[in-house]
Amino acid sequence: MKKIVDGKVYNTETAECIAEWDNGFYGNDFKRCEESLYKTKKGAYFLAGEGGPMSKYARPVGNMTGGGDGLEPITEHEAQKWLEDRDFTKELEEYFSEQLQEA
Q1: What angle do CA 67, 70, 73 make, to 5 degrees?
Q2: What span, in angstroms and rounded, lies between the C-alpha atoms of 49 and 12?
Q3: Nearest-angstrom CA–CA distance, 9 and 100
Q4: Which of 17, 22, 42, 51 could cross-link with 57 by S-S, CB 3.0 to 4.6 Å?
Q5: How far apart are CA 27 and CA 71, in angstroms?
Q6: DSSP per-residue codes, 9-72
Q7: Digit-coded pLDDT (tens) for 28-62
């Protein structure tokens, strides 16, 4: 998947995939959602994903919604939060070790 946002190219083919997540719903479930967190060679983060008609990736289809996909640039802080919310401890320690501190 490739998208240009504010003159910057985000491409899943050339970026590093840090983590992949899905919400556990089966492929034909309306709430199904799958996302991957990427980091570009220049250090920008983005999410790429797809989902059913009741997911954040839903798209209008006439007077209804259908499944869809998308790509969304996010900040470094949002990337860290995304990993924390999904319990990606190893990835947090690898990519955000400088921001982590002992409790």
Answers
A1: 155
A2: 10
A3: 29
A4: 51
A5: 19
A6: EEETTTSEEEEEEE-S--TT-TT-EEEEEEE-TTS-EEEEEEE-TTSTT-EEETTEEE-EEEEE
A7: 999 999 999 999 999 999 999 999 999 999 999 99
Using DSSP bridges, classify how beta strands 2-5 and 8-11 pair: parallel, antiparallel or unpaired.
Answer: antiparallel
Q: How many separate domains does the chain show?
A: 1
Q: How far apart are CA 92 and CA 103, in angstroms?
A: 15
pTM above 0.85, yes or no: yes
Instruction: Domain of residue 82: give its range.
Output: 2-99
Tokens found for residue 2: 């490739």
